[in-house]
Amino acid sequence: MAVTDDLVSRVRLMISDPSGADQQFTNDEILAALKRRRDGVRYYPLREKPTIDEGGNVTYVDFEAPVGDWDTGVVLTDGDYDVLTPTSSDYITGEWSFATEPDLPVLITGDTYDLYGTAGDLMLQWHAAETCAFDVSADDIDLKRSQKAEMKRAAAYAFYAKARTTATQLVRTDEV
User: Fold this and answer.
1) CA 143 to chain centre
2) φ, ψ at 64 (rounded to 5°)
3) Distance of alpha carbon 66 from alpha carbon 46, whole angstroms
4) What is the C-alpha to C-alpha distance for residues 126 and 26, in angstroms, rounded to an integer?
5) Chain-centre distance of CA 114, in angstroms?
6) pTM of the shown model
């Protein structure tokens, strides 16, 4: 699992935390948050996107995953589990192309990350850090720093609204 700098940079851009002396989170902290929102995939079949030429012949050289935001360390294999080398890769959208049609199905093994969930987690952490800020009123002047914390909380929940859904199995222990 090798998270690319691109994923860290994209999360940093989403939460408006540019690198530098004033950054709220280090790259390692963003990396740890990304790893908590990682989905590992093993031999998942990609969806074929048909290409139809002028004669009506259908070939399958373009493939897509149901989600994007993949790490660059993914491995694509054919139906015989032979490693494939795509001619183009778009890890953000989860799309790969080949020069010739590979043996179907094309399977992917690698890691994909929930950037919106990660951004929400980081914004809640930032919100917690900002809750120590206080409002000041003096000489008919009101300075409200607490609004900054509320904006971070609102941004976190806006990111959570776009995050990937998860499912869990609940077990009741109070009945036989």
Assistant:
1) 37
2) -140, 150
3) 8
4) 12
5) 3
6) 0.82
User: What CA–CA distance (Å, rounded) separates 96 from 20?
Assistant: 34
Rounded Cα gap, residues 144 and 163, in angstroms = 30
Query: Helical H runs in 49-173?
Result: 115-130, 146-162
Q: How far is it, in rounded angstroms, from Cα 50 to Cα 62?
A: 7
The DSSP letter of residue 143 is E
Position 145 pLDDT exceeds 90: no
Residue at 120: amino acid letter: G
| Cα 15 from Cα 50, distance rounded (Å) | 37
- What is the C-alpha separation between 156 and 125, in angstroms, rounded? 9
Residue 122 near residue 28 (C-beta atoms within 8 A): no
Q: pLDDT digits over 55-86, tens only? A: 899 999 999 999 999 999 999 999 899 999 99
What is the spatial distance between Cα 92 and Cα 75, in angstroms, rounded to a whole number?
Answer: 15
Cα 126 versus chain centre, distance? 19
